[in-house]
Amino acid sequence: MSVERVLAALALAAALATAWAEAGSPLAQKTREGKPWLAWIGNRTEGPAAGAHLLIYDPARRRLHVVDARGQVPSDAAGAAQRLPAPLPAAAPDEEPALAAARAIEEEVRSPRSLLRLAGAAARGLRRGDRAAADPLLLALELRRAPKGSVEPARLAGGAQDEALLRRLLSGGAPPAGRGGPISAEVLNGTAEAGLAARAAKMLRLGGVDVLLTGGTSPRPRTLVYDRTGDFRRAERALAALGCGRARAVTRLDPARAVDVSVELGSDCVGAFQAGGGRD
């Protein structure tokens, strides 16, 4: 796509966004009020049945939470959420579904072609008098202006901590204050590369992360940094210290582990730790 077409698409998107904001689309209204906006995205047909993800956009913090809620969403919140028409690709068997959904959304936001398509769909909706048709475009524009890393995937399994986290996200509450001090972590090697956990632990310690233990886990191709306490910011800082650009962070609470984050190393990050000493 030529630069001229990209610029034209962005100009059209900006003009349409302004028009819908003035017309009062649901997302624009929530943004003005500083309240979370909710939407279902994926293969969900209706209601809170399993198979899709709940999007919770927090305009005050410019954060989009992509939640694999596994049927835990209260009925009033489930009913209030819009349903976005965009499907999501199926996650690979070895990948967290919420992370796959977050990646698809980020790719959609970065694509000029997708912006042009969203603008066209919004224009058709406006002609029908459907103000909510603007919301996918408005969300894309919001995320393009948001800082890098503003999409937070989370998988909830139904424990008390998961319920508390979901209530906080639905209410737009502030993240936890944190315990202070260094981030605590465990590093688990999911590859056949001996010494990988020790070398990754060395990188994390250089970045100010307190690695309490290293060990092994089941084989995995992808490296994930799990937020175990509901403070995604700590997982982001550990991710930055890890030094592997392919790794991603996702919330999956597990208070029994007694660490802030779990770093599960996959084969995608072997190259990032080729140098350095240490053995598992």
Task: Give your account of this protein's structure.
There is one protein chain. Helices cover 39% and strands 19% of the residues. It is of the alpha/beta class. The protein folds into two domains: 3-171, no CATH class; 183-273, Alpha-Beta Plaits. The strands form two sheets. It has a five-stranded mixed β-sheet. The chain has a five-stranded mixed β-sheet with strand order 7-6-10-8-9, covered by helices on one side. The longest helix is centred in the N-terminal third of the chain and has 21 residues, at 3-23. The model is unreliable at 44-50 and 276-280 (pLDDT under 50).
Concise structural overview:
By secondary structure, the chain is α/β, with parallel strands linked by helices. The protein is built from nine helices and ten strands.
What does the secondary structure layout of this molecule look like, with pairings?
Layout: H1 3-23, H2 26-33, E1 37-42, E2 52-58, E3 63-68, H3 75-80, E4 82-83, H4 97-110, H5 112-127, H6 135-145, E5 151-155, H7 160-171, E6 183-189, H8 196-206, E7 209-216, E8 224-227, H9 232-242, E9 248-251, E10 261-265
Parallel strand pairs: 1-4, 3-5, 6-7, 6-10, 8-9
Antiparallel strand pairs: 1-2, 2-3, 8-10
Helix pairs in contact: 1-5, 4-6, 5-6
